Amino acid sequence: ETSIFFGGYRISGVSVPDAEEHSDSSWTSPRPLTRDSSYGVVSQIPQPTTAQLEAAGSNYPEAIRDKFLQLPENRPEVLPKTAEKIKEDYNPQTAYEAARSIERYLIRDGGFTYSLDVNYNRGDKAIERFLGEDKKGFCTQFASSMVLLTRELGVPSRLVYGATTGKEVESNQYLVTGSNIHTWVEVYFPEIGWYPFEPTPGFSIPSAMEANAPRPDPLITQVGVLPASPSTVQTQQPSKPPTPEKEESSTEARESVASPEPAAPYAYVLSLVLLLALLIAAVPLIKKLLAVRGRPDDLYQDLTARLRDILPPNRARATIADSPALTPTERLLLLADLAGAKAKPFRDFAWAYSESLYAPDPHLNVIDAYHRAIREYEKLPRWKRALGAFNPASLLLRGRWVLAAYRTRFGKILRRRRD
Fold first, then answer.
1. 329: which residues sit within 8 A by CB, 6+ positions away?
2. In this structure, are residues 281 and 189 in contact, taking their beta carbons and an 8 Å threshold?
3. The sheet that has 27-33: what strands, in order across it?
4. How far apart are CA 43 and CA 8, in angstroms?
């Protein structure tokens, strides 16, 4: 249920009577839109040319200048330092060149890595750590940094929260879910208006918008496909003809490789197989032990682990469920949808679990909600549940979270000691 209308880009008209347009370009319905609701929208797709964007100038309206060049007074030093570095390295002459330079720095040249496995506990320190020592994050950190950097360079910009195009389920019909939620940047150009930029590695704005002003970067990949980190991109140089001495040494190397080492003893191989079998057999037992205490957090971890472990390892959307940016409700609903289970029992449990975390006097019964979700989970095919029981993926992921938490805590202690 929602009151927000979704469109291809900036919506200029909606078929629902009394629909309201807001100052941030969003449109809402006077009545909630429920399942099977339908509506029509007309969207304006900006298609300026590179020449138009270059020539737009900086004669910004007062309202734009006042609101979209604001910067916090207590911003970290790394922000103006990074902006100055970009200015020196790229020497942008126009607002458009400045925006493209920042985009390129964040995507390719700055050594940043796209990762959902980050934990910025303090929001006021996230950008400082992201641009400083960590250089790792997801769309929120990349887009927020670009907005602040463009404003440092005197270019009006704003953070945009929306969704990517989703999955085409039928011809001209797309399914957009919570996993498609995304954040990007819009920069203002006089006489043109707001134009989108995508500073997150592996994502791009729709090709229709870039038709006349393509992004000049060879490392851009398809929407949602994560590229290798800049440190792993290598340029292969053509090999020179070897000298006679090198040829001889390489021949000796080939001869030495040609004589294999003796095979490992049979008993050694057998012990490895037995050890592997014991480890696999221990997986479901460890999972039960982690949930046996019955605390709300243990039950939540158990449910998410059950759903996560029955999914194929190459399921791209499944990795999105590991993002720390998701709420418990978003994570459980996404996993239930991917697993093919009914959403209601998992939504009920998520509400009960969230209430146990934040309500001073919780009324919902977490254990009852957990058992209802388990009954829905047990309706899934038995073979799928059996494979999930022996899949150690959720245990490994939980171990990574624990290590990340300790690493973050240890890093804070070291920083305090340095200070």
1. 347, 350, 351, 354
2. no
3. 2-4, 27-33, 20-21
4. 6
CA distance 333 to 342: 9
Contact 59, 198 (CB under 8 A): no
| Verdict on whether the full-model pTM lies above 0.85 | no
Which 3 state secondary structure label does DSSP give 143? helix
pLDDT in tens, 78-110: 999 999 999 999 999 999 999 999 999 999 999
- Alpha-carbon span 190 to 100, nearest angstrom: 17
Say if residues 194 and 200 touch (Cβ distance below 8 Å): no
User: Measured in whole angstroms, how far is the alpha carbon of residue 256 from the centre of its chain?
Assistant: 47
Evaluate whether 103 touches 146 at the Cβ level (below 8 Å): yes
Query: Are 113 and 135 within 8 A, CB to CB?
Result: yes
Say which residue, 68 or 308, is predicted with more confidence.
Answer: 68
Q: In whole angstroms, give the CA distance from residue 199 to residue 127.
A: 14
Phi-psi region of 26 (alpha: psi -120 to 50; beta: other; left: phi over 0): beta
Compute the distance between CA of residue 159 and CA of residue 165 in angstroms, rounded to an integer. Answer: 18
Q: What is the DSSP string of 248-276?
A: HHHHHHHHHHHSPPPPPPHHHHHHHHHHH
Give DSSP secondary structure letters for 2-69.
EEE---SSEEEEESSTT-EE-TTS-EEEEEEE-TT----EEEE-----HHHHHT--S---HHHHHHHT
Query: Do the beta carbons of residue 291 and residue 298 sit within 8 Å?
Result: yes
CA atoms lying within 13 Å on the CB side of residue 413: 6
Which residue type is seen at 143?
A: A
C-alpha closest to that of 53 among 10, 100, 117: 100
Tell me which residue of 107, 341, 307, 133 sits closest to 227, measured CA to CA. Answer: 107
Which tokens sit at 122?
């303090």
**Strand ranges, E, within 273-377:** none
- Residue that has been written with the tokens 């992921």 in this structure: 397
Amino acid at 17: P
- 68 neighbors 177 (Cβ within 8 angstroms): no
Per residue in 369-379, pLDDT (tens digit) is 988 998 998 88
Nearest to 188 by CA among 56, 338, 71: 56
Q: Given the structure tokens 């979209």, which residue do they identify?
A: 68
Q: Which of 170, 168, 156 is nearest to 99 (CA)?
A: 156
**Residue that is written with structure tokens 């459980």 in the block:** 332
Residue type, 221: T
Measured between alpha carbons, how far is residue 54 from residues 20, 67, 99, 188 in Å? 34, 23, 11, 12
